[in-house]
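PT: before anyone asks, these are the final sequences, not the draft ones from last week. 684 residues across everything. Please model them as a single complex and drop the result in this thread when it's through.
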Amino acid sequence: MFKTRVTELLGIQHPIIQGALGGGLSRAGLVAAVSNAGGLGLITSLNHATAGELREEIRKTMTMTDRPFGVNVTLLPTLRPVNYEEYFAAALDEGVRIIETSGRSPEPYMKMLKDAGAVVLHKIGGARHARSAERAGVDAVSVVSFEAAGHPLPDDVASSVLIPACVDAVSIPVIAAGGISDARGFVSALALGAEGVLMGTRFTISQECSLNPKAKEWLLQLGEADTMLVHKAINNTERVVRTEFARQVLEKEESGAPLEEVLAMISGDRVRNAYETGDISDALFTVGQVVGLVHDIPTVREIIDSIISGARDIIERLHASGVASA
Amino acid sequence: MKTRMTELFGIQYPIMLAGMNWLTTPKLVAAVSNAGGLGVLAGQQYTADKLREAIREIREHTDKPFGINLTLGVGARERIPIVIEEKIPVLNYALGRPPEIAPLIEAIHGYGGKVIGTIAMLRHALRSEQLGADALVVTGYEAASHSGNVGALVLVPTIAEAVKVPCIGAGGYADGRGLAAALALGAEGISMGSRLAATQEAEVADTVKQTWVNSSEEDTVIDPAFDGINCRVLRNDAANKLLEKKSFPLFDAISAGMHMKGALGLSWGQLLTEANRLRKQATGIGGGQRGLASAMRFAVGSRLFSKATTGGDPVNGILMMGQTAGRIKDIPTVAEVIERTVKEAEDILQTMNKQFAS
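LR: through. Structure below.
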């Protein structure tokens, strides 16, 4: 049990959130496992073609856990027109009371969400966005740093500076996203003022994640410098494994090729197929720099338990060595 | 506050001053050491004779341990005998190649001195340890000047778990939160640059100190355009101008070369030798060697760097600045910075201890 304002707000045991993964990886099995282990699992709503499918996933998750879990709704421009209200309504209607938004300000939906009694988390990439999210009425912000996989801002500000900058900018709790996979990162983020952490890469490389085992093994081999940023040119910066295909995508983007050609290379179907088959040759693999610190494929519970017990050890060790006066 | 870093150097607090060119002076270095940290002076900014004087000046102001930073390569050959003759307590080297580093470490160890290697990549960390460095400064992406592409939150634990020597976190650390964060990652202390230079004791123009206070964490840019390898600087007019230049102007490089000749007191022969050495120098960060264009950029960059600092012109000069500038809001004394950093770190660790409900 590690208490912060985030654990209180979400009604969870440990302030550890599973990042909403793309490519169909944030499904009931993983989400329920995280919530059952005392963290918060998040379903990625837009991985479901219709609000009806999202409802089914929520119901399935509820059969696997009685703990709180949340639903992410990404408000970025998409290829197909999305009726976001339908997705929000589906989640609320099914009894989900934790909603994570990202990509754009959740302001237009805040009344709907708050009227239904939902707790709203919002992902931001900089101090000014943290402030506007707080003004819009969200309950906590997740700060996505340079180290992260999914959508750091092009300002490239890394965690050791970005976390305290956002903590100082708002009075609502801040959750650190990017660069965290273990107890060291957890304690570090909390020392910087965060009150919780959000991890994507670490939970991707877990027993319960549906990613093809071959791909998990492949990710284990990667070092901290084996990632690169793509999609800056199309304003949707994303960190991916530095593969030959990723280089081709970047080249295509920077050459000013028509958007459709780029989009064809990065379609959701390709990613989904790669995650299912483990064939990495023609799809981007979203991953954070922290992949270099991930050396095993444990269960979700082992991940969370080792972070909490490891955090206790780190703090006790720093005390014992006289770093902190008793 | 005790860590392996304080034990190694015989200092009170696990905090060192980054040896920044044109920003560190004997007075600032002594102030950091007197406040219980490890002051480090950039040796590169002096001719060999002036470096000897500077070392003696530090000793006039403090009897505590201090260090000298040397960027191996250009002009280091003339400075190395000075630091050895003066038996400086700590040498902090950056860049360089094994044939250069190994005998240097041996010489410093010969009289009981300690050596810190500054690195930004795992490969270089392992090499520095193998060559005998006693500690490493691990430079995250946030840092001013040269770094790799990995944020400190990931890089510090990556290196700390791979080497046995103590690691000192650098990049993005400006207060007690940073110190506690770095220690949690397995570092044994932190290095602070801009934070310790934005102090009363720093002998740098107020225009520069105010630039740190007024800048946000989003006001920097990292690019090889400034000195040939990835370097983080304040995004100002001068930086934008260099970023826009597609081809490299020969005239600027020649004029900068003349400036370098004057600044370092080189003869024509030495200038040409140094230019050639610089061209062949390992870049240390991305690996490989500098090309001619990269060496020329270095010459131009050096001139613009001193314009910003000693020239006190952070608009037309290039000011190396880390993302940590966003954390700097005041200009206290060095002792205040160090004391409040330690106190804040201790408070944080205590609070966190309480967050574990039994």
